[in-house]
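Example 9 (inverse folding). The structure is encoded as follows.
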């Protein structure tokens, strides 16, 4: 394994006990690497790892396999198109790994509990607040927005994760993990909950940890809640009994617990938006390090934000655009997909109507040009073009470069039209742009005016008025049609 194994363990930080355990993890890793590969992936995929802050060749813990965990949506409202940009980036990652021969196991959680309105574990619970706003129970709105989220993913042709897991269905696993963290002496109790003591991990957040704020009883500004007590005398809609008292889990613990359940720790890849770097992911790493001495995931990939020209796109402010609002505006969801691929996933993207219109018309042109290519049975894709396309995506998922290859190929007259069609269809499998639905264009139907002239010419010929027939032939030629006379009669062909 490269530096990516060693440096996170050092920089995330651990007690001396934790560090010793982490090095055992490294040994376990090399043992796993020695196992012969079933089907070695074809070509190296280079990815930017936030932990090492560089692009490295992706090396899985187990050859040919990739365990991938993605932080899912907090379901107190619809996903906004910023959230969906992150899931489009994850989808591209997954498809590239699949195309390169990895057996990907993709786990995504649904945050349906205990996410407070501030990172400092203060404020109202977003689920209960959302429920009150909508006049429904927290459980009902969680289910409603989970289904809406899944529908959005389908409409964007995002592959479903192999495993969906809901926080509310994994509270016992979270309690067990908190108990381990407590056994390792990383916790303390305040009047409102059980907190993680970040000062026990000397290098905690050295790279990115944010000071999320102090309340009177917290020992350090970065400390975060593992378990929050239900306020005295208040009946919460979502609450559970625990060894520490009735309450609900902190936000970060759900991902550490569910990732450990469905993927082994450490696993290969963990994704989220850049907002997760300083708090949520730093804390996931800290919790797992404290409980197990292991680094939660080897690779951490983060998608940059999509924002509006003059403001952030944020769910909690209520000021955001949904995929449905784009559809209501007459846009194809894939035009939004196309828009996000015009920027690299690690680059800021500003959403404007002009940008979406640009993407929509580019996609329309792509479909039209593709439709004009003849379907030839047995035509194989042009391997050099497919390889250039895949090479762009293997280089840290460079979608803008891959789109450039799509257009180059579409316009490359040196490739036979039928082969071009097959080549683009192959690219569409990796980067879906709706080409599978585009059928070969119907041959041009002559306009009614031309058909009327043809009819008049047939009548003139029948009446043996050859002068009129010749004049009508000339008129049709001016419209761009050639008259072909044959035994069955006359027909028109585009000149
Ligand atoms: P949340 O529902 O807030 O937990 O966010 C779901 C996912 O969307 C997380 O991976 C966030 O990092 C990501 N995200 C939130 N806001 C944006 C945005 N404006 N642009 C891109 N991704 C975002
Ligand atoms: Zn998470």
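The amino acid assigned to each position is listed next.
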């Amino acid at each position: 394994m490269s530096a990516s194994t060693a440096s996170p363990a050092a920089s995330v930080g651990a007690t001396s006990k934790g560090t010793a355990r982490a090095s055992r993890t490294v040994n376990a890793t090399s043992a796993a690497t020695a196992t012969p590969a079933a089907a070695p992936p074809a070509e190296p995929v280079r990815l930017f790892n936030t932990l090492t802050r560089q692009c490295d060749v992706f090396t899985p813990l187990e050859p040919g396999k990739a365990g991938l965990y993605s932080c899912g949506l907090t379901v107190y409202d619809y996903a906004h198109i910023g959230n969906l940009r992150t899931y489009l980036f994850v989808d591209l990652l997954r498809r590239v790994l699949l195309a390169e021969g990895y057996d990907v196991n993709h786990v995504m959680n649904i945050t349906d509990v205990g996410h407070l309105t501030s990172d400092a574990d203060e404020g109202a619970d977003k689920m209960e607040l959302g429920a009150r706003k909508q006049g429904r129970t927290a459980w009902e709105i969680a289910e409603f927005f989970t289904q809406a989220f899944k529908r959005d993913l389908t409409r964007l042709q995002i592959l479903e994760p192999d495993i969906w897991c809901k926080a509310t269905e994994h509270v016992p696993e979270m309690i067990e993990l908190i108990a381990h963290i407590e056994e390792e002496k990383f916790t303390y109790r305040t009047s409102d909950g059980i907190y993680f003591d970040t000062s026990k991990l000397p290098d905690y957040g050295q790279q990115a940890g944010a000071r999320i704020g102090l309340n009177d009883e917290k020992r350090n500004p970065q400390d975060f809640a593992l378990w929050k007590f239900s306020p005295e005398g208040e009946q919460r809609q979502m609450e559970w009994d625990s060894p520490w008292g009735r309450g609900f889990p902190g936000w970060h613990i759900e991902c550490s617990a569910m990732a450990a359940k469905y993927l082994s720790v450490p696993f290969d890849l963990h994704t989220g938006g850049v907002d997760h770097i300083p708090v949520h992911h730093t804390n996931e790493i800290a919790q797992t390090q404290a409980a197990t001495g292991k680094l939660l995931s080897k690779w951490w990939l983060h998608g940059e934000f999509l924002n509006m020209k003059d403001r952030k796109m944020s769910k909690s402010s209520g000021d955001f655009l949904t995929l449905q609002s784009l559809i209501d505006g007459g846009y194809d969801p894939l035009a939004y997909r196309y828009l996000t691929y015009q920027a690299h996933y690690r680059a800021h993207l500003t959403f404007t109507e002009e940008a979406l219109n640009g993407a929509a018309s580019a996609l329309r042109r792509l479909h039209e040009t593709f439709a004009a290519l003849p379907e030839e049975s047995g035509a194989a894709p042009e391997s050099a073009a497919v390889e250039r396309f895949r090479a762009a995506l293997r280089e840290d998922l460079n979608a803008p470069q891959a789109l450039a290859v799509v257009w180059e190929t579409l316009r490359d007259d040196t490739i036979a039209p039928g082969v071009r069609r097959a080549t683009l269809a192959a690219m569409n499998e990796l980067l879906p742009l709706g080409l599978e639905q585009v059928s070969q264009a119907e041959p041009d139907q002559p306009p009614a005016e031309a058909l009327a002239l043809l009819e008049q010419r047939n009548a003139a010929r029948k009446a043996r008025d050859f002068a009129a027939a010749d004049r009508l032939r000339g008129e049709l030629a001016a419209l761009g049609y050639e008259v072909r006379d044959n035994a069955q009669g006359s027909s028109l062909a585009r000149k």
